[in-house]
Amino acid sequence: MKLTPGELRHILFGYSLSGADKGRASSAAFLYHDGTLTYEYGSREAHNERKITFQVSQQCLQSVKKIISENAEPLGSVREKINGSASVESENCFIFDGMLIIDWDLTRWYLEEDRKKHPEYYSNSVKVALTENYVRDIFDEICLMIEKDDKQMKYARTVLTDL
């Protein structure tokens, strides 16, 4: 998924996984500054692109902004360590208020297991793992906030339509 600087400016939080390099479907989730949340997935080549859109509550939007604001400086530092020469079109792209953090795979690392299974690599990889875990922690915290809001919105719609 290719994002222009103009589009990126409107995104508060998001994730994009490009599948174009291996024929896989791409997927993306973007929360915009106005509270619009979109999920996009599919493949243009296969003509099966789909997009789902809804609004998050103002409370949720403010909470997401607060989380990003409180972590802006460390995320900026992490971005410099992780991004390197990465390309948005061929990588996982995490977005925090216009800041891109690009990596092959920000998978959660389980350091104690890694230390036991691969002690020869542990000392070299622990800094990378801690850095990636930090980004993943922020990402997961925001996702949980949005999921909680989504459940509340679905419940509210159910109650209102049942009256």
Class from secondary-structure proportions = alpha+beta
Give the number of DSSP strands. Answer: 6
- Largest sheet, order of strands side by side? 4-3-2-1-5-6
Strand coverage percent: 15-25%
* Helical amount: 40-55%
Task: Give the quaternary arrangement of the chains.
Answer: single chain
**Kindly, what is the distance between the CA atoms of the first and last residues, rounded to a whole number of angstroms?**
42 Å
Low-confidence stretches: 159-163
* Secondary-structure element string: HEEEEHHEEHH
Biggest sheet record: 6 strands, antiparallel
How many H/I helical runs?
Answer: 5
Give the overall shape: globular
Query: Mean pLDDT across all residues, rounded?
Result: 76
State Rg.
18 Å
Explain how this protein is built:
With 163 residues, the protein is α+β, with helices and mostly antiparallel strands. Helices cover 50% and strands 23% of the residues. It is built from 5 helices and 6 strands. The chain has helices spanning 5-10, 58-70, 72-83, 111-117, 119-162, and strands spanning 11-17, 26-32, 36-42, 50-55, 92-96, 99-103. Strands 4-3-2-1-5-6 form a 6-stranded antiparallel beta sheet. The termini are far apart.
